[in-house]
Amino acid sequence: MNIPNSIAITPELVAAHGLSPDEYQRILDLIGREPSFTELGIFSAMWNEHCSYKSSKRWLRTLPTKGPRVIQGPGENAGVVDIDDGDCVVFKMESHNHPSYIEPYQGAATGVGGILRDVFTMGARPIAAMNALRFGSPDHPKTKHLVSGVVAGVGGYGNSFGVPTVGGEVEFDERYNGNILVNAFAAGLAKSDAIFLSEAKGVGLPVVYLGAKTGRDGVGGATMASAEFDDSIEEKRPTVQVGDPFTEKCLLEACLELMQTGAVIAIQDMGAAGLTCSAVEMGAKGDLGIELNLDHVPVREERMTAYEMMLSESQERMLMVLRPEKEDEAKAIFVKWGLDFAIVGKTTDDLRFRVLHQGDEVANLPIKELGDEAPEYDRPWLASNGRPALPASDIAEPDNYNEALLKLVGSPNQASRRWVWEQYDTIIQGNSLQRPGGDAGVVRVDGHPSKALAFSSDVTPRYVEADPFEGGKQAVAECWRNITATGAEPLAATDNLNFGNPEKPEIMGQLVGAIQGIGEACKALDFPIVSGNVSLYNETNGVAILPTPTIAGVGLLPDWSKMARIGGMNEGDELILIGFDGSHLGSSIFLRDVLGQTDGPPPAVDLEAERRHGDFVRGLIRNDQVTACHDISSGGLMLAVAEMAMAATKGASLTLAEQRGPVHALLFGEDQARYVISVPADLANFVGASAEGAGIPFRRLGTVGGDRLLVDEIIDIAVVDLVNVNESWFPAFMA
Amino acid sequence: MNSAVVQLPGLNRDRDMVDALTKISGHAPVTVWQTETEIPDVDLIVIPGGFSYGDYLRCGAIAARMPVMDAIRHKAEQGVKVLGVCNGFQILVEAGLLPGALMRNTSLRFVCKEVLLEVVNADTAFTRSYIAGEVIRSPVAHHDGNYFVDDETLKSMEDNRQIVFRYAAGTNPNGSLSDIAGVINAKGNVLGMMPHPENLIEAAHGGTDGRGIFASALDLVAA
């Protein structure tokens, strides 16, 4: 019996596919006739915001993407960066926000699965994962359920697949009540001369479908992810895919085995918009047409229509162009791993994307135009006015500094994330040198005696909201700083830009400002963006999320035996602040969490100082002059020192001699380009002299020792009390 | 001394195990795919950790029915040492080579952390390099490590000194009965344990407490 592919195209149907009347007219002009139902689905999949970047492309082009170490910039499945010795690191970050809100476990799990697939599609074995998670207010009725599901989903997929999760972020803010953020990062290792790309080459070659079977799950997922939510979102649950990490692990091994044989000409994973997007990309990039015969697609449901097969987002699937003479060898590998292997089409020379089903041609579209001619918008945008200056002298001092510090240490956003990361396998593969809880995750490069990679994911959304440009700069600077704090040289980054509805000029203004800030910081710090993802329409009932451009970066440690850790300080060491004294309390967590105010501009980022201070600290670490290092970010100097003391379970005695400016700004100010280092006492004078010689501002803070954290007469807290407060919030919240 | 590492789809600590055995013994173990019906002559067969067959149905249940398991059973009967770690332990239990069952952690959550293990029996072929009562560090990483066995079997296991590792007081991560972390068969040549000694064998891991198990099993320590 034939499965119907013909459904009348009505304006309602066009609108339901997320296409505007203008966009539909563009389709009519392009193909000179009314599209078939399947073709409408294909256009909707290719032209939605998620796949086409139609609102952001114009601005993304302004980002620096090149550098001496960049092997592959944006445009492929992931970025590729040289790490010497013929090795390279392949990495990307991608959002799975909308699905994770609708179905937290599967949404988060398939987010992890998708990013892992992006990495191994390029021929790299995944070696590290991170996750930047943002949830609504802790007292919102859905938050606990979402935290529980997302964390279990991230762990469920990554643990089973077998990649260590070495870092990430978890934050709460009421602005994420209706739209949580799940940004998944993965990095893999490959040889620089064995990178696989999606560009098809050669006419008449077999297009091969590999991996899991196609079902109806996720049909229309990318279109769903390109719209705002309203009260009917529960109805969207069927558009969330279901993950199978077991199949993905088998797919990884089979793909890497197959790549060794020399059979693979081009490879593209099926992610958003599944078969449609992967086939079009492979053909369009190689200036070739693609013909698919859906009768050969392995399916796990009966009577699937061409439309459903083309738009299915079933997970753990790959499309490849293979050398015909290697077909049998390739098939044997996939059979060994229990995976499907089917020739579903061929490359052609006519630049058409043709889809056959049951003897009918259900789609025949110009392949280049599907991707390249996607609408691109220069949407109107409104620059943020920023906020007036807020001098620290206008901000109240706390009555009790002990209470203020304990409040910050135990607050929802600063409390220990142990409850979360103990659900992730952080040690699998045996190469994790620094696990979550420090400045950056560090993973040893397998097979090399001393090399390691550092990973960090950062953004401070409250800064971006207050000033998108400075906030964008700060996200990059903090990521660069966290990587530097281990002693690593930051190499490159990936960006995951999460914003509201770009059709609103003020939201578009946030996006534009943040991208400009990111671009400026990446240029100044030689920290190019090599891959990325944009997630827009993160709004519910007209309320947008905090603008959240997550930056995830990678750094290289030539010799991990000299790496610095947050908790490495020893009894008798001296603590030294590198950078200026704290002075800026605008948009700080002291203001928000202690005084309950949201006000003032974010700290300005002096990129020149950022670079000089960071280079200086990295030099000290590499010369083995530092026992511990931590960057100063939210919570300022005092929270940084408290975190170092907790990690080392050692006390310290600090003095603020000759301070200028208010004490609360000195302790809690969030001024940028700063670190706290711990150095052996006999090196302290030398380190001070080096800083002076290099023109680096510093302050000698005091000595490590005892079991209490002391600051002159104003702070005196037992480290064990800090630890208890810091560790208790999350388990108590989730209990 | 030669060793073999079993590979099944979904296992994911096979590379960690191969790496540990290579570093400790000085040469790489042979790897044995699930469909093989014969295992080469080795002194130690290791079933590593992971999620064989996705842990679908029940952890280890599908793997326990693969052809390679008959070969392992045969070797075990001949006295060859068999070590199952994490999923490997679950597979050995499902295959009937070890008593008991491994249930969901009482927290119902996956747990990855470092725990302390008490070496209860230091007279086995796997623990000779430790001292009875010694407390060693070890990471765990599992969702289903909650060991259970009926009272009668537990009693006989205790009488036969089959409890090899216990989680030290206060560090039981999964609710295991009697804090059991690792058990051995009555004959003394098949050991199953939930913790991952292979992830604590060198300075980069932050310690070497796990080496003793491999050094013992590979006869790299004085008897």
UniProtKB/TrEMBL annotation, chain A:
Its main location: cytoplasm. Its EC number is 6.3.5.3. It catalyses: N(2)-formyl-N(1)-(5-phospho-beta-D-ribosyl)glycinamide + L-glutamine + ATP + H2O = 2-formamido-N(1)-(5-O-phospho-beta-D-ribosyl)acetamidine + L-glutamate + ADP + phosphate + H(+). It is an enzyme of class 6 (ligase). The active site is at H50, H96 (proton acceptor). Gene3D superfamilies: PurM-like C-terminal domain (3.90.650.10), PurM-like, N-terminal domain (3.30.1330.10). InterPro entries: PRibForGlyAmidine_synth_PurL, PurL_linker, PurM-like_C_dom, PurM-like_C_sf, PurM-like_N, PurM-like_N_sf. It is found in: Cytoplasm. ATP binds at Y53, K92, D495, G532. Residues 75-189, 437-556 form the PurM-like N-terminal domain. Mg(2+) 2 binds at D118, D269. Monomer. Part of the FGAM synthase complex composed of 1 PurL, 1 PurQ and 2 PurS subunits. NCBIfam families: FGAM_synth_II, PRK01213.1. This is Phosphoribosylformylglycinamidine synthase subunit PurL. The lineage of its organism: Bacteria, Pseudomonadati, Pseudomonadota, Alphaproteobacteria, Hyphomicrobiales.
From TrEMBL, chain B:
PROSITE patterns: GATASE_TYPE_1. Pathway: Purine metabolism; IMP biosynthesis via de novo pathway; 5-amino-1-(5-phospho-D-ribosyl)imidazole from N(2)-formyl-N(1)-(5-phospho-D-ribosyl)glycinamide: step 1/2. Pfam families: GATase_5 (PF13507). It catalyses: N(2)-formyl-N(1)-(5-phospho-beta-D-ribosyl)glycinamide + L-glutamine + ATP + H2O = 2-formamido-N(1)-(5-O-phospho-beta-D-ribosyl)acetamidine + L-glutamate + ADP + phosphate + H(+); L-glutamine + H2O = L-glutamate + NH4(+). Keywords: ATP-binding, Cytoplasm, Glutamine amidotransferase, Hydrolase, Ligase, Nucleotide-binding, Purine biosynthesis. It is found in: Cytoplasm. Its main location: cytoplasm. The active site is at C86, H196, E198. The keyword Nucleotide-binding applies. The keyword Ligase applies. InterPro entries: Class_I_gatase-like, PRibForGlyAmidine_synth_PurQ. GO terms for molecular function: phosphoribosylformylglycinamidine synthase activity. Its EC number is 6.3.5.3, 3.5.1.2. Part of the FGAM synthase complex composed of 1 PurL, 1 PurQ and 2 PurS subunits. Part of the phosphoribosylformylglycinamidine synthase complex involved in the purines biosynthetic pathway. Catalyzes the ATP-dependent conversion of formylglycinamide ribonucleotide (FGAR) and glutamine to yield formylglycinamidine ribonucleotide (FGAM) and glutamate. The FGAM synthase complex is composed of three subunits. PurQ produces an ammonia molecule by converting glutamine to glutamate. PurL transfers the ammonia molecule to FGAR to form FGAM in an ATP-dependent manner. This is Phosphoribosylformylglycinamidine synthase subunit PurQ. The lineage of its organism: Bacteria, Pseudomonadati, Pseudomonadota, Alphaproteobacteria, Hyphomicrobiales.
